[in-house]
Design goal:
Elements: E1 5-6, E2 14-23, E3 29-37, E4 45-52, H1 61-73, E5 77-82, H2 99-113, E6 118-127, H3 129-140, E7 145-151, E8 164-165, E9 168-169, H4 171-183, H5 190-193, H6 198-207, H7 213-217, H8 224-227, E10 241-247, H9 255-262, E11 267-272, H10 290-303, E12 315-320, E13 334-339, E14 348-355, E15 362-364, H11 391-394, E16 398-401, E17 409-413, E18 416-423, E19 429-437, E20 443-452, E21 471-476, E22 480-484, E23 489-495, E24 511-523, E25 537-538, E26 544-548, E27 551-558, E28 565-578, E29 584-596, E30 599-615, E31 618-630, E32 634-645, E33 648-660
Parallel strand pairs: 1-25, 4-5, 4-6, 6-7, 7-10, 10-11, 11-12
Antiparallel strand pairs: 2-3, 3-5, 8-9, 12-13, 14-24, 15-24, 16-23, 17-22, 17-24, 18-21, 18-24, 19-20, 19-23, 26-28, 27-28, 28-29, 29-30, 30-31, 31-32, 32-33
Keywords: Hydrolase
Organism: Mesorhizobium shonense
Protein name: CocE/NonD family hydrolase
């Protein structure tokens, strides 16, 4: 990571409230950690809300310590709330982005605006879950909410989240449900909840804990369930000023462009080379002074200061240079570009015929294990999670290699591939990867897109393929900003499997690709940085003692007897002791994804999470297990929670459900 400057002296002295209760209209007490200027009651300040299920006491504390005191020191009340049913808050959570969750956030905003230490103006911010819900809350227009900063988020809960991409079922749908099963199984801290109360809150939470994968799989098309909370259904509902930020190595690359293009309230976008992290400590480098940039936004829209943010370019993006393929890059060389308006008149689409009219069709019939070089949907461990050398997947795909480039090109935007094809099955998927091929053959992923071909015209009303009948489809790849140097080649790789990114079709399918056209968004070559950012700063880091260091491992194995290919992942997030309040917390996840190259119905995924907590003589542990497989008619899901106090099993619960498979 880029070195961060630690700031210890601020314009206003900061006071912290580690557990301020905010009681909702139904009586549920939410636990908030609040930092504010010591003299805020005499000189009221705006408030900034971050509303999450990820536990302020031990879950997001690393980034909270860097961020919230910094805002407070510059004249804000910075409020970090544990969502109901999580962390040290009461109540229960039954789904992500529920109406209860969004109403709670609106009620917290109203509460904050009414406090004597607040000037009545509130901003909301967050990354991932917090980036999603701040946009959804903004669409509800609570009166005091004037601005939002949304990072690594989405405007479309169906087609651009962890559930379905291009109508294809993402394995992250199951993976994230497994993660939340573990995250929400964790107990409140007895020091906050009380020695005689924490256990009752915990057991009630466990007894009512949902396993969300069956619910999400019950909505395989873009129905009312997904439309609710997808702000793309009505961009005009958002009236707050929105700063949207993301990273090219994150799964949420498209939101920045979508927001800047469609929102009519003040809006700006920034995209760097980062994974799923806040950009003042993100990797790959260069990180930026995110907190200073955020203050410019807050000061303008919450304090009325003239900070010049209106004159900022609409879209600032980091154009990454070509690098050797690797599972992790500490740094991505490149340059910052700026587009004063977006979509930009500087970017032109160049059409490249991959299969011209009348040419012999290409036959696409990929082994089911094609895709193992694709990396994680949203990397966040600073470990081996990025896409690797694409040659193993290229070898299992139909590849269209272009001529060696005589001059470098800058690709900025969303490439598209228009195809005409026929399938021998009523349902089939297609995956398209755009790659940078080095002179020695190394293949680096630039962008990719997937499409369930029955969704070629609508995610809400799919249409079966008629075997042998030719149809047209458009595959939109993710937004990107990438320089391909002279002497390299572009490769478009087409497959009908992309494991373990998407769940396979129920039957092996063969596609006859009769026409394909690449539409490439090209920008005039940038000669250097067109915009700059301050160096990263943060408040005093979290003080901890490391008990067990972090470690991430990935292994791909092929059983030569059975032919099954297995991806095994272990992410040990380590174990640390908080030096302020003494809580020791550790977590580990193990994932297994297995498939036979010839059999889509052999696909299976399993996860096992361990969470541990202790302080002095007190200790608890939760173990969660989840499995997913399918046959031709159903997705078959099972899960289990075990909770231990000391070594005593105090709670166990099993889930098992078959969800009919919507073959369209």
């Amino acid at each position: 990571m880029r070195a961060m400057k630690t700031v210890t002296k601020f314009p206003r002295k900061v006071v912290e409230f580690p557990d301020m209760g905010i009681v909702m209209p139904d009586g549920c007490r939410l636990s908030a950690r609040i930092w504010m200027p010591e003299d805020a009651s005499d000189k009221p300040v705006p408030a900034i809300l971050e509303h999450l299920p990820y536990r302020k006491r031990d879950g997001t504390i690393f980034r909270d310590q860097l961020t919230h005191p910094y805002f407070a020191g510059h004249g804000y009340a910075s409020i970090r709330v544990d969502m109901r049913g999580n962390g040290d808050s009461e109540g229960l959570m039954d789904d992500e982005y529920s109406e209860q969750e969004l109403q709670d956030a609106c009620d917290v905003i109203a509460w904050a605006a009414a406090q004597p230490w607040c000037n009545g103006n509130v901003g909301m911010m967050g990354i991932s879950w917090g980036g999603f819900n701040c946009l959804q809350v903004a669409a509800k227009r609570p009166p005091a909410l004037k601005a939002a900063i949304s990072l690594c988020s989405t405007v479309d809960r169906y087609a651009d989240d962890i559930h379905y991409k291009g109508g294809c079922l993402l394995l992250e749908n199951f993976g994230w449900a497994s993660t939340m099963l573990s995250y929400s199984s964790r107990p409140p801290d007895p020091l906050i909840a009380g020695d005689n109360r924490w256990r009752d809150l915990w057991l009630t939470r466990l007894e009512n804990q949902p396993f969300l994968a069956p619910l999400w799989l019950s909505h395989q098309h873009r129905d009312a369930y997904w439309k609710r909370g997808s702000i793309c259904e009505d961009f005009s509902a958002v009236r707050a000023a929105v700063l949207s930020i993301g990273g090219w190595h994150d799964g949420y690359r498209n939101t920045i462009s979508n927001l800047v293009t469609n929102i009519r309230s003040p809006v700006k976008g920034i995209v760097g080379p980062w994974i799923h992290k806040y950009p003042h400590y993100a990797g790959p480098n260069p990180a930026i002074g995110f907190l200073q940039e955020a203050l410019r936004w807050w000061d303008r829209w919450l304090k009325g200061a003239e900070t010049g943010v209106e004159a900022d370019p609409d879209y600032r993006a980091y154009v990454m240079d070509s690098v050797r393929p690797a599972r992790w890059h500490p740094e991505r060389p490149g340059r910052w570009i700026a587009e004063q308006e977006w979509p930009s008149p500087n970017i032109k689409l160049e059409a490249i015929e991959l299969i011209p009219d009348g040419a012999k069709p290409a036959i696409v019939a990929s082994p089911q294990n094609c895709g193992l070089a694709g990396g994680e949907y949203f990397p966040f461990t600073f470990g081996p999670e990025l896409p690797g050398d694409q040659r193993p997947d290229d070898a299992l795909s139909v590849c269209f290699d272009q001529a060696e480039l005589e001059e470098a090109i800058d690709i900025v935007g969303a490439p598209e591939v228009e195809v005409r094809l026929s399938s021998d099955r009523p349902q089939a998927n297609i995956a398209v990867r755009l790659c940078d091929v080095h002179p020695d053959g190394a293949s680096e992923l630039i962008s990719y897109g997937v499409l369930n071909l029955t969704h070629r015209n609508s995610h809400e009303f799919p249409e079966a393929l008629v075997p042998g009948e030719t149809v047209s489809a458009r595959v939109v790849l993710d937004q990107c900003a990438y320089r391909v140097p002279a002497g390299h080649r572009l490769r478009v790789a087409v497959s009908n499997a992309y494991w373990p990114m998407i769940w396979p079709s129920p039957e092996p399918a063969t596609l006859d690709l009769s026409k394909a056209t690449l539409k490439l968004p090209l920008r005039p070559l940038a000669t250097g940085d067109e915009v700059s950012f301050a160096e990263p700063e943060g408040a005093t880091p979290w003080a901890t003692e490391t008990i067990r260091p972090t470690n991430s491992e990935r292994h791909v194995d092929r059983d030569e007897k059975t032919g099954v290919v297995t991806l095994s992942i272990t992410d040990d997030f380590g174990e640390v002791r908080d030096l302020a309040h003494g809580l020791v917390h550790g977590s580990i996840v193990r994932e297994t994804w297995a498939i036979h190259p010839d059999d889509p119905l052999s696909a299976m995924g399993s996860t096992h999470w361990t969470q541990t907590f202790s302080r002095n003589e007190w200790s608890v542990r939760t173990e969660t297990f989840a499995d997913m497989r399918s046959d031709a008619q159903n997705f078959i899901l099972s899960a289990r929670i075990e909770a231990y106090e000391g070594e005593k099993l105090v709670f166990e619960r099993d889930f098992e459900q078959a969800i009919p498979r919507a073959l369209l």
